[in-house]
Amino acid sequence: MKKIFQNSVVKKLLLIFISIVVFIILLDNIIMPWYVSSPEAVVPNLIGMKEAHAIEKLESLNLEPIVSDTTYDENYPKGTIVLQKPEPGEVVKEDRNIYLFISGGEPVVRVPQLKGRSIRDAKFTLERLGLKLGNIDEVPSQNPQNMIFDQQYAEGTPLKKGESVGISVSIGMGDEGTIIVPDLIGKSLAEAEKVLADSSLKVGKINYQRSFSLLPNTVLDQYPSKGNKVNNGDRIDLFVTKAAEPGESEVEE
């Protein structure tokens, strides 16, 4: 049994040796001469060419163009070659793969969410993305003072690097006035108008709401509410009842 095993090992080793010898002979006499004698081509300079032109150029030289990736580069128009592998001037065999990297044009970034931030925070966030802080509109509002409550472009809007984004910033409700807003709730619209006029104030927007229990033109609510301080001539918005339409029911379906 031992002798049979030894003979088997010897045969395997002999077979491996013969295979190596045959491969060396083939490599030396067939493969290498074929490779050395196969046609060659010089890789052309494709940088700056349009993609279609570059592909056509490579195919005319029996080279294989492979579009590898798209990269944003402001120095090259969109659709042109910005990089190639192998590099221009290299001598390669025909049918060699030539990898092309295409320009996507100028870099594009997405506008971040700026609402709720401070001016300083917004400026830092924009600059980090390559954008600029544009026009700052200071507007009276009910939002906290110095807080951004609106922006020129919505979050996610694509912009080119270097573009500006304008914002609207709250300055609060302005300086505190000297006139105390009177209580108008429950009064008729005519009474409310007289009370406001006596306080050097005006009626603002009137919002009508249906009521089944109060007389028409009764004040339901007001803005600003009673007790707030406002300035001379400011307007007070009112929520006023109106008569229900015929056939309407107080109970909603």
How would you explain this protein's 3D organization?
The structure is a single chain. The strands form six sheets. A three-stranded mixed sheet has the order 2-5-3, covered by helices on one side. A three-stranded mixed sheet has the order 7-10-8. It has helices at 2-37, 51-60, 119-128, 189-198, and strands spanning 40-42, 64-71, 81-85, 91-93, 97-103, 108-110, 132-139, 148-151, 158-160, 164-170, 179-180, 202-210, 219-223, 229-230, 235-242. By secondary structure, it is of the alpha/beta class. The chain has three domains: 42-105, Trypsin Inhibitor V, Chain A; 108-170, Trypsin Inhibitor V, Chain A (2-Layer Sandwich); 179-242, Trypsin Inhibitor V, Chain A.
Keywords:
253 residues; alpha/beta; Trypsin Inhibitor V, Chain A; 3 domains; three-stranded mixed sheet; 15 strands; 26% helix; elongated; disordered C terminus
SSE layout:
Blueprint: H1 2-37, E1 40-42, H2 51-60, E2 64-71, E3 81-85, E4 91-93, E5 97-103, E6 108-110, H3 119-128, E7 132-139, E8 148-151, E9 158-160, E10 164-170, E11 179-180, H4 189-198, E12 202-210, E13 219-223, E14 229-230, E15 235-242
Parallel strand pairs: 2-5, 7-10, 12-15
Antiparallel strand pairs: 1-4, 3-5, 6-9, 8-10, 11-14, 13-15
